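User: Show me an example of a complex going from sequences to structure tokens.

Assistant: Sure. Here are the input components:
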Amino acid sequence: MDSTTTTPNPSSEVSESTVKNDKKKITLSHRIHTWPYLVRMEFLTAIIVMLGMTVWAIGMDAPTEQPADPNRTPNPSKAPWYFLGLQEILVYFDPWYAGVVLPTLIIVGLMAIPYIDINPRGNGYYTFRERKFAISVFLFGFVVLWLSLIVLGTFFRGPGWNIFLPWEYWDPHKVVALTSVDLPYMLGARQESTMFIVGMLLVFCYYPGGALVGQLLLRDTNIYKQLGAVRYHITAGLFLMMFALVIKIFLRLAFNVKYIWVTPWFNV
Amino acid sequence: MADSNKSFFTHVKESYVWRSMFRHGYADTPRNRILQISSNVFLHLHPTKVPRHAVRIRFTWCAGGVTFLFYLVTVVTGVILMFYYRPTPEHAYADIKYLQFDVPFGMIMRNMHRWAAHAMIIAVWVHMLRVFMTGSYKPPREFNWIIGVVLLVVTMLMSFTGYLLPWDQLAIWAVTVGTNMASATPLLGHEGPFSDLIGVDARYDMRSFLVAGKLIGGATLLRFYVLHCIFIPIIASILMIVHFWRIRKDGGISGPL
Amino acid sequence: MANLHKLREEGCDPRNYTWSRRGFLGLAGWGAVLGALGLAGGSFGRFMYPRVLFEPQSLFKVGYPDQYEVNKISEAWIEKERFWIVRTVDGFVALSGICTHLGCTPRYLASENKFKCPCHGSGFYAIDTLDPYPGIAGVNFEGPAPRPLERFKIGLAEDGQIIVDKGTIYRSEKGQWVAPDAFLKYTG
């Protein structure tokens, strides 16, 4: 039952050497009694949190609006705040992608992290220097994409899902020119078939094209050799998918681009 | 009353009944410190000794523990709310109003439930952030990270299914938007790409599975109620048991090797 | 499952193990367990789709054609039944009030001659007097909506009232707006 006697020391060689080299002097911390040191901290934290909760619950009432009316949509209609990032993405992509495929990719991508991040350093302590790429990508996805889109959806979206500054009056008749065009049309393609082909080329050049070009460029580096082809392609795929979101948001906000590739079955 | 120098509490503590419940004394000895943990079913969640950094707030942010605390708060307040709430379109909204204005302490129970649910989501995200920043998903804790990701999703699902229950405008439209995304699922939703290839229609697809029909109504409310109060909490509890168990089996709290 | 390593030591080729008596019984046992679980799961899935749904009726009589003004959009039914009656020079359309993006009800903004969805900002055209049949009412032109609003089956009842059937929908992108019952020709 007691795990204190069986602390495993995995991937030992590399991490031990880095520990030795590290100037922060990471030593094997010696163990202290759970009672009272840990239990005391937990108890204190629980009391403080419960105090905060009580004050919050007394001071602020949970919202109740008018009774449900399936025929009258409030303007604007917002999802729960923790889904507003997704609702914001729904502006840029069709529901099958923004509402289903992308969330699935986020979940699968998060689950895949321990298996694609094979860097043995930074296991169990704070460090940025030893894992710059992993932390940058994660913080970009979590803070820049997820959290800031939630802030945008919560505070900057008003009636008609138009952008309003927090102190602006929510005018339901605000006119915003949103007339949108597809990217192939913007690039000069006019016929349906050429637009289809141009769109397809753009999408395929990005993925898997981008991943394959990256593979060629990185082929001889140590990073690629350590990762191996499978891990590389999973990482590159997830990374490109994440970046596709940024590109689409930029294209929409800057040029009113609606779709990049229109097909009879789905639009991207 | 043989020894009059002993206090009343000493008498109680030395009594046969007390000793049958608490098998060791309270004296501050190393042996007793260990017994406090290992002979108590709840505290036994912990190992008897932990690394020094495990009690440092700066390292753990206590985010996982706080998440669990918020879960317990929502369970307790949720069960209390269930005494008054009826999941039908006729009653649901009125019952919420009744709880708020006519039931003593009803308002604070509802507020607690709602805010603790929101706080739990924030705490889960913070916990994920701290586990990522300390690289605690690295071997041997890969599998526990996966359980954690599932728990993250389950937490948001618990909150989302609860969102419909007040049966107000906020509830029904948030859920309309949410469930309509399900109808856009590739293959399995009637609005999704390729769905006509396998004959999925509005009557039998991903969305009608959640909504119990084509329209959001009484059947939807009941379905979300069962998911919210029974189905998802049971799954969450089982996953939490595995999550906590694996922390210890994977070598306790992570730390510099 | 037997230990293949041990089998090899005993001089038995593991490749033959699968179809040995022990191997086969093991497979059959696991197959039965998984099959039963699969069946239970499938049954639960089917259990969640009842044979009969109790949903509101879909047929409505919406009054006589002369009650509606030409080139106007009637909001008489949007509050209760979520559709607009669009009257053009050539006749009538029953336009669904369910946004094709994620199912919110768009607002009709008469001054801008469009329908605007409050959820994600999709916009749909209302009336173009130069295009009375089948009309542009419901065609998406801005925001994320992937396709035009749907139209309902519309016709004249025996007593001369307009009758709308929400149970039958016509989708523009499938070329159904020119179907006989998608548009009520009326020039009176």
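The lines above are the inputs; the final block is the predicted structure for all three components together. The two ends of chain A are 53 Å apart (CA to CA).
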